[in-house]
Design brief:
The two termini are 21 Å apart. By secondary structure, this protein is an alpha+beta fold. A hairpin with a 2-residue loop joins strand 3 and strand 4. It has two domains: 1-33 and 93-136, 3-Layer(aba) Sandwich (Glutaredoxin), CATH 3.40.30.10; 50-91, no CATH class. The longest helix is centred in the first third of the chain and has 12 residues, at 12-23. Helices cover 27% and strands 18% of the residues. It is built from four helices and six strands, in the order E-H-E-H-H-H-E-E-E-E.
C-alpha cells in the first residue's frame, strides 16, 4: 500500500512529516485536506484505525474551535465530526495512513512508527530539532 498523508503545506509539522516519508523511500499520495477534505465516513475510518475518538484529532488552535465552544464536553462524537466536515481546518494534521497503521503525526516523528523503512538516518526538522531515526 502506498502511504497517504492528509497534508497542509502551510504547516511545518506536516511538511516535516512529508519529508520523513520521502526519506524512507516512499512517495505518498498527498491529500491537501483543506482543498479536498475526507468524507465523514473516511474520517470515521481513520479515527477508528487510530483506535481514537474525534476529539483526539480536533484542532484546538483553529478559530472555529473557540467560537463554537468545542471544548464543551456536551458535543457528541457525531456532532464533532459534523463540525470537522463543515470546517476542515478543525481536523488536526498531518494524518498518515500506511500498511502498518494510521497516526496523527504530532510530533512529526510519530510517522516513523508506521513506515515500512523507518531508518531514515538523522533528520533535521525545519525548526532545527534533530531526529535520530537510525535505529528506530
Amino acid at each position: 500500500m502506498t502511504a497517504i498523508i492528509y497534508h497542509n503545506p502551510s504547516c511545518g509539522t506536516s511538511r516535516n512529516t512529508l519529508e520523513m516519508i520521502r526519506r524512507s523511500g516512499e512517495e505518498p499520495i498527498i491529500i491537501e485536506y483543506l482543498k479536498t477534505p475526507p468524507t465523514k465516513a473516511e474520517l470515521k475510518e481513520l479515527i477508528s484505525a487510530m483506535k481514537g475518538a474525534p476529539r483526539e484529532i480536533l484542532r484546538q488552535k483553529a478559530a472555529p474551535y473557540e467560537e463554537l465552544k468545542l471544548s464543551d464536553l456536551k458535543w457528541t462524537d457525531d456532532q464533532l465530526l459534523d463540525y470537522m466536515m463543515e470546517y476542515p481546518i478543525l481536523i488536526n494534521r498531518p494524518i498518515v495512513k500506511t500498511s502498518k497503521g494510521v497516526r496523527l503525526c504530532r510530533p512529526s516523528e510519530k510517522v516513523l512508527e508506521i513506515l515500512e523503512n523507518a531508518h531514515i538516518g538523522v533528520f533535521t526538522k525545519e525548526d532545527g530539532e534533530v531526529v535520530n531515526a537510525i535505529k528506530v
